[in-house]
């Protein structure tokens, strides 16, 4: 029997099918956004640091949920920073 996922907030995704779809979308778009899924009152964005085709780290930012509307416009700078770190890692 699979262990149930913890639900730290009411926004946390715990249903296996929904979580699988969310993870597939994250892989396809190359970043993740969360809205109060881990901590009430906060939202976040994260992008992988990919070296030789494999994720070796991640770079993320956390904002107050009151500033959630700003999160989507921060995705591209975050992805660029993660790519820059990957480039430095490969040198």
From TrEMBL:
Regions that span the bilayer: none
Residue span, IclR-ED domain: 1-91
SUPFAM superfamilies assigned to the protein according to its UniProt record, in alphabetical order: GAF domain-like
GO MF: DNA binding; DNA-binding transcription factor activity
Source domain of life: Bacteria
GO BP term, example: negative regulation of DNA-templated transcription
Protein name: IclR-ED domain-containing protein
Organism: Nonomuraea glycinis
